[in-house]
Write a structure and sequence with these properties.
Layout: H1 3-40, H2 53-72
Helix pairs in contact: 1-2
Length: 76
């Protein structure tokens, strides 16, 4: 197997792991915000927790773009 294809598959695996971590982190922060609004008097809405997904989405997109580029790289 070509070394570029191995790197491409590794990048896809990293993107999948990042998406799983993103879901767990955003869900935890969302539930924490709901608790804080109800009991601790937070003034921000719980939807603010979804802003934490932006850096993860950027990382996932970078991994996917690099994966596609490495997959199509011609043999050297």
């Amino acid at each position: 197997m070509n070394k570029f294809k191995v790197v491409s598959l590794a990048l896809i695996a990293i993107a999948i792991v990042l998406s799983d971590i993103m879901c767990a982190n955003v869900a935890f922060e969302y539930s924490s915000m709901l608790w804080g609004i109800k009991y601790a008097g937070y003034s921000a809405p719980a939807n603010v927790a979804f802003l934490l997904a932006i850096p993860y989405i950027i990382g996932i997109l970078v991994c996917i773009v690099l994966s596609v580029l490495f997959w199509k790289k011609p043999n050297q």
